[in-house]
Description:
Blueprint (H helix, E strand, L loop, with lengths): L17 E2 L18 E3 L17 E4 L17 E3 H5 L3 E4 L11
Antiparallel strand pairs: 1-5, 2-4, 3-5
Keywords: Glycoprotein, Repeat, Signal
Protein name: Cadherin domain-containing protein
Amino acid sequence: QVDPSAKRIMYVDETDIGYIKTTELRYTDVESPSRDLTYTITTPPYFVYNRGERDAGKLVAIHNISKVERSMDATQVSKFTQLDIENQKIVYIPPQTDIGPESR
C-alpha cells in the first residue's frame, strides 16, 4: 500500500538532478521486504503540457556510478525496487535541451 506520507510527485529544475526519495515514492507490504517490491516503468517521463518535445528526461539507476551528472550517457531503467528508492539509487535526469521557463 502507498505510504500516506509519500507525495508521489517531485519538482526538478532543468539544471538539476532529482534523487527519488521515500518522501516522493514509498510503498509498503507487510509480507514483502523493500527489496522485493518492484516498480515497472510503463511510460517514460513526459511533459504534461507537451509542445512536440520528445525528450522529457529519464530515470536512471546509479548503483555503480560515483558521480552523477546531467550530461552522463546512462541507460534509462525499466525496473527498480523500493530498496533502490530507500538507498537513493534512482534519479531523474532532465533532458539536455532547454525546456523553457514554464513548469512542466
